[in-house]
């Protein structure tokens, strides 16, 4: 019996070298080491992340050139709403936020139709500090009842320091537009592209007849009575060219210093020169220069040289630089005689002589 108990004791000793309390201590020790290593790894990751974050640029150091902009992308967005993501740009380590938001425009191209407004807008969109709506919203002349919140929602997102703008040439000749724009902002900057009113009228008619080829001839529409030579100044292509009549309304609401006139003829012959003046007017650095343009002899119109990210130069659509319909020289001379006193009044009103014949 004693031998049996001795063998049982030896069997227990072989299979239970350590009591249960020793196993628990060993397990606890391993868990403690694992926890310590986890905390150490987490701390190292946190410190490394903090170092990297501290190297992020402050808002004031971020150049607009480093961000995707409507003006710098190519081809241009049709409505200027897809650049600088919909959610904007989040904050940095200093706790600041630099977010792109929709704002009411600070500058407007208000006219004139067939003066070169589309060309001017496309040229200006090259500037990284300009965010321009591509389409014409017609807010102040057609959709005013929708309210400023709707108008703001149409604008592209922009960062602080960028200028938001749009163009609607009909504003210049719409009676209610000046007070409505003034109610939005008395500090807004206004841009008007003007050209020889006779050439502008023929260009206007050329566009009309391209869409409605069955309309009467230019000559029959331009005169109330062809035999007496009485001009029908109420006909839209001629009425728009009465610049002094329209400008008078704008000067009743805005000082001359807030209205910049672009010479439509020089916008074609010297686009960089006219763009330089517009950039000065908007308080921007002259970034759009003659290096951006070349003259397309076929279209008779300036085009943009190959932009960054594109393999081809960019010219405006086929409707730009379109050949005008042929008009009887006698009709053209009668129109020049008609416009002469109106042009002289306009020159005196704005303090600028455009030297139209």
TrEMBL record:
Active site: 114 (for sulfotransferase activity)
Keyword field: Disulfide bond, Glycoprotein, Golgi apparatus, Membrane, Signal-anchor, Transferase, Transmembrane, Transmembrane helix
GO molecular function terms noted in the UniProt entry: [heparan sulfate]-glucosamine 3-sulfotransferase activity
Protein name: Sulfotransferase
Main localization (coarse): membrane
Matching Gene3D superfamilies: P-loop containing nucleotide triphosphate hydrolases (3.40.50.300)
Covalent S-S links between cysteines: 303-315
Native species: Kryptolebias marmoratus
Subcellular location: Endomembrane system; Golgi apparatus membrane
UniProt-listed Enzyme Commission number(s): 2.8.2.-
Membrane topology label: Single-pass type II membrane protein
Enzyme superclass (EC): transferase
